[in-house]
Amino acid sequence: MNTSTDRIERQIHIKAARSKVWRALANAESFGEWFGVALKGKHFVAGEPCEGNITYPGYEHLTWKVTVERVEPERLLSFRWHPYAVDPNVDYSQEPATLVSFELEETAEGTLLRLVESGFDQIPAHRRLEAFRMNSSGWDEQMTNIDAYVATH
């Protein structure tokens, strides 16, 4: 495993209490608002799937599907998904999924949010690089999105 190609790591310091950042992250409806997916009436429950229509412009024809791995209140939320699964004519269900983990750490100034998406080395070679590249830039945008969401809600 080459960690430079197998995982994406991001972190952001959010000037808000950990409980507030946790609500934006672990409440499925709130998550959907900043992430760009319609999750009204949905919940994140460990071991259960969660899905909704993507609302991000240009991707509205897709369904966001994850299986929630762990929910540890105010500390960790993780799920598995098929990265950059954007061709509606392809069945990605037989491919290995990556693991997305959000970890929260309280700091004197607010909350440190760490994101790790790992498992790209297991993605089929013909789509691995594009999935890594697109998710890498996507996570840059999503970290900004959650920061803005927490600041305004």
From TrEMBL:
Gene3D superfamilies, per the entry: 3.30.530.20
Highest taxon listed in the record's lineage: Bacteria
Pfam families named in the record: AHSA1
Domain (Activator of Hsp90 ATPase homologue 1/2-like C-terminal) ranges: 16-150
Family from the record: Belongs to the AHA1 family.
Protein name: Activator of Hsp90 ATPase homologue 1/2-like C-terminal domain-containing protein
Source organism of the structure: Dyella nitratireducens
Taxon lineage: Bacteria, Pseudomonadati, Pseudomonadota, Gammaproteobacteria, Lysobacterales
